[in-house]
Amino acid sequence: MTVIMNNLVIPVGEEGRTRVLSAFLAKLLELGVVDAMIVPTMPAPGVITYLLAKDAELVRSQAEPFAPVMPINGASAVAGAVSKKPQGRIGALLKPCEIRALLELVKLKQAEADNLLVIGIDCIGTVARGEYKDAYPASNTLPVREACRVCLNPNPPDTAFDGINIGYIGLDDCGCLLASLSPGLDPGIVGVIEELGFDKGDALAKQREATLAALKEERGDAYEEFLREAEAELDGGGVEGIAKMLAACTGCRNCRVACPVCYCRECIFDGDVFEYETRQILGRAGKKGGLKIPQETLLYHLTRMNHMSLSCVACGMCEEACPVDIRLFPLFARIARRTQGLFQYVPGRSQEDSLPFTTFREDELEPR
Amino acid sequence: MKIGVFVCHCGLNIGGVVDIPGVMEEISRHDNPGFVTDYRYMCSDPGQMRIKDAIRDMSLDSVVVAACSPAMHETTFRRTVEAAGLNPFRCEIANIREQCSWPHRDEPEKATEKALEIIRASVEKVRKNQALSPLSVPVTGEALVIGAGIAGMQAALDIADAGCEVTLVERLPYIGGHMAQLSETFPTLDCSQCILTPKSSEVGSHPKIDLFTNSEIHAVSGYVGNFDVTIRRKATYVNWDVCNGCGLCMEKCPQKIESGFELGLATTKAISIAFPQAVPNRPVINPEACRHFTQGKCGVCEKVCPVGAINFEQEDTFIDRKVGAVVVATGYDLHPKTEVGEYGYGVFSDVIDGLEFERLNSASGPTQGEIRRPSDGKTPKEVVFIQCVGSRDQENGYPYCSKICCMYTAKHARLYKHKVPDGQPYVFYMDIRAGGKGYEEFVQRATEEEGVLYLRGRVSRVFEEDGKITVFGVDTLSNKKVEIRADMVVLATAIVPSRGQTELCRLLKISTDEWGFLSEAHPKLRPVESLTRGIYIAGCAQAPKDIPDSVTQAGSAAAKVLALFSSDTLSHSPEIAVVDEELCTGCGLCVEACAYDARTLDIRRRLAVVNEVLCEGCGACQVACPSGATCQRNMELSQVMSMIDAVI
User: Fold this and answer.
1) How many helices and strands (H and E) does chain B possess?
2) Beta-carbon count within 10 A of B313 CB
3) Residue A39: which of A15, A13, A57 has the closest Cα?
4) Inter-residue contact A164 to A179 (CB < 8 Å)
């Protein structure tokens, strides 16, 4: 599934890449390519949030496209804006894992892709929100989050949406950014962008590809190592191992809120299904000798795994949201790798990959 | 809530394995039901009376019957509780026979433990069961019959005679199916046309039968009682309303083609009526052969037609019908020549199949009923019949028995002997299956009185030499190799489902077996119903069968249709899925999970919607739905949790 992108060079110059890319995004808004633009901004020192901007000036002056922080997975931000009867076109600058989560939400009919212009951007990793804020502005030396260290997708997927991808990996010495337009991008948009007079950048694209390939290989090794460690953390696996990992869970459900692909309007764990009569609770306690309170924390996580592991894009936001530092990322990454492998499903890759739950092939679970 | 628990011994089926008194004591002590009792046969009248009495005397709110599978007696016991004034859906069956005592016969202690858990789970479930009422669905009292062979015609006539409108659709231009091609029929040797034509003409003129020949099913939607069907009437290029069937067009048409009805043993014209007694007796132009269509000239038929019925511009038309029930009677084909690959079939012209022999023997056939072999028209003096060609052949064909071949081969051999008294018929057979009224006697007569030589064994090779067909075989009774220099070989080729049946099944959403024959709802107890409500099956479309069996099944299918039509509405189980609109996010996973097409996505409202009539309450949607927006009535998630609690 390779596509030939239309590669253009955005020179950076002395202004620096942040302001140059912000200006490019602002231009798209000014020229009417989009009616609004969702970008990360910094409303307070060290605090990054998403802003849905109508005013191009705001984008030009305040966007922080390179901030190494993911305040929330941007897929949730975008889906919230384009879930119902979207009108006008909304642009959104998103990191690779945000794009992949957004595509899953589109497949799950929780977002409309028709009036959306997805602008992807390379991401070599993000740091924890709190650490970033505390260390700001001296936050350049912070360690990258674990999920990012083993991330195999530092570049936005070419096949997910018909949009624009901004590349910088492998281009550090060139003093420029690469804007790659999907072949399926609206010709009207392509025309407007081409009129901005950027040079063709196919050579730079090759250079970026080479660096990406090396980075992915390095990450691949790190990922395998990480999975081995995750296995060890699970203490032999099985329900006992998982229960031990989740022992500290307070049932706050923050992980569910942070998860971009957990999409239910009301979670089944918020309804009355798990409200038990005292008779039942006593019965359970009687059988086991005692009962962990709050109840059903294990069932809650198992249910979440069941519901979303096929669409898990390994963004790690669940773990970042946990107030009691449960190692959710290794747990979910491991499960997701197994379930996705079972159906050879790659979440967020292409709209043509249908969700395994919605299709049936006789051989899909073979060999068992 | 007072729950009555009724434990059935089922003689020794349950009572011989499960410690019923022990189970009852445990339930009474720990599960707070209200009333517990047992009986030797709970389904018997006195057993049911116990339930009724207890409901009244103990003022029970719900009932659990621990007995056999709900497939057996759920209806029985729900009627019982209803008779005692309780809502029938407050009765649950705990299956402690098929799912407990039978499979765990050798471990009575564990079986007792499991029975206890099954009953406990049912008690917990029934605590939260709602009182439900069956849904009512309107029924359109008109039927569609697909296929107008003997089975389809019989079904159509039986339904129409009862006063219901029938739409009968036949792919070919004429009705009668394969029976119209047969010469005589076993076991009475009466002429096939003679017994068929009265039925054909009755179908053709029946005021309640709307006949569409040269037509196919184009689209089907809807559900029992309310199917919407689109019929594609293929162009005949002859205006049948004007045509009087004089036949002048056929006489004058200059283009000869192989006759499909005569299986290529004779020619016909590009405009033709398949056979003289055809119903409807109207010609059809074959556009693949007609010179007007292939060469852009001719038009002789148009010139000679005295009533101006020829219309080269005619196009396919589409007719919509709303029907309440469908009978599928699409018949059979013979295993195609190209796929047999044995016995020189399709290679030597004097190796023919049974249906071709029927045409050779038919008074209206290519030889006017004289037995003459296809290659040179000579009367064959030695004829070899080979049975089980493709049937009962795991390796090269089909494992099933084609059922009619033993009988028609005996018939062929006898008819041949009648017409060629100095000829010698040989029959290679595996064993003779003649299980029908008068069938065994029929075969006996062939072997004992009419000099048909039966050889038990297989044929190893068939080849042509000096104008003869040499057959190598073995007679396993005498253990001798046999070589016959025959003039003609007749193969009893396997019966396969008719061409296009798979596609039709896809339109109707009914299932087939691995060979493409229609699946019945139950092989013994529901042999004429498909698994889709409102769709019935008859004739060889289900499995190979002879004319009496086809007619019987057609009549039975008609009776089922008429039973469905006997009321203006039909009731549907209320134990189906419902969607909580507050919770549904419209992700559509349930739509894909539903095997019954009972779900659609309302794009505008972003909600999943249930078609209550199509929903069979299987629960797949409930499993697919992540938020619990979909629930099955009386199998709510909270009930499931309680049931799980009861067993772990």
Assistant:
1) 19, 34
2) 6
3) A57
4) yes
Tokens of B346: 């399709």
Confidence of residue A21 (pLDDT cuts 50, 70, 90): very high
- Chain A's closest residue to B589, CA to CA, is A358
pTM: 0.76
- C-alpha angle A263-A265-A270 in degrees, rounded to nearest 5: 105
Other beta carbons within 10 Å of A15 = 12
The dihedral region occupied by B191, where left means phi > 0, alpha psi between -120 and 50, and beta the remainder, is: beta
Distance of CA B444 to the CA centre of its chain: 32
B439: how many CB neighbours lie within 10 A of its CB?
19
- CA atoms within 13 Å, Cβ hemisphere of B197: 11
Angle between helices A202-233 and A328-342 (to 10 degrees): 110
Tokens of B126: 């029934």
Q: Choosing among A264, A288, A302, which should be mutated to test the B contact, i.e. which has the most B CBs within 10 A? A: A264
The 10s digit of each residue's pLDDT in A60-91 is: 999 999 999 999 999 999 998 887 777 889 99
Residue of B nearest to A282 (CA): B645
- What pLDDT digit, counting tens, does each position of B165-187 carry? 999 999 999 999 999 999 999 99
User: At residue B637, what are phi and psi to the nearest 5 degrees?
Assistant: -60, -35
Residue of A nearest to B626 (CA): A307
Inter-residue contact B8 to B43 (CB < 8 Å): yes
Give the residue carrying structure tokens 């389809």.
B152
| A85 contact B CB<8A | no
pLDDT at A257 over 80: yes
Query: Of A105, A110, A239, A266, which to mutate for an interface test with B (greatest number of B Cβ within 10 Å)?
Result: A266
Q: CA-CA distance, B195 to B145, in Å (whole number)?
A: 21
Please tell me if residue A273 touches chain B, with a CB cutoff of 8 Å: yes
DSSP state of B417: H
Which contiguous run of DSSP H or E holds residue B36?
strand B34-39
Helix ranges, B162-276 (H): 192-205, 248-252
Q: Are A222 and A184 in contact (CB under 8 A)?
A: no
Tokens encoding B371: 């037995």
A1 touches chain B (CB under 8 A): no
CA-based nearest residue in chain B for residue A288: B648
CA B512/CA B532 separation, integer angstroms? 12
Which chain B residue is nearest to residue A272, measuring alpha carbons?
A: B638
Task: Cis check for the bond before B280: say yes or no (omega within 30 of 0).
Answer: yes
Phi, psi (deg, nearest 5) at residue B583: -95, -25
What chain B holds in terms of domains, given with CATH numbers, is 3-127 (3.40.50), 142-234+316-331+498-565 (3.50.50.60), 248-304 (no CATH), 336-496 (3.50.50.60), 576-632 (3.30.70.20)
For residue A265, give the nearest of B589, B601, B627 by CB distance: B627
Indicate the residue of B606, B627, B645 with minimum beta-carbon distance to A283.
B645
Spatial distance between the Cα atoms of A169 and A210, rounded to a whole number of angstroms = 10
The reported pLDDT for the residue numbered A1 is 58
Cα dihedral sign, A230-A232-A234-A239: positive
In the 8-state DSSP scheme, what is residue B90? G
Which residues from B are below 8 Å from A when comparing CB atoms? 582-589, 592-593, 601, 606, 624, 626-629, 636-638, 641-642, 645, 648
Strand order in the sheet with A176-181: A47-53, A36-44, A90-94, A116-121, A164-167, A176-181, A6-11, A199-200
A274 touching B (Cβ < 8 Å): yes
Q: What is the pLDDT of residues B427-484, one digit of tens each?
A: 999 999 999 999 999 999 999 999 999 999 999 999 999 899 999 999 999 999 999 9
Which residues of chain A have a CB within 8 Å of the CB of B641?
A: 273-274, 276
Pairing of strands B351-353, A164-167: unpaired
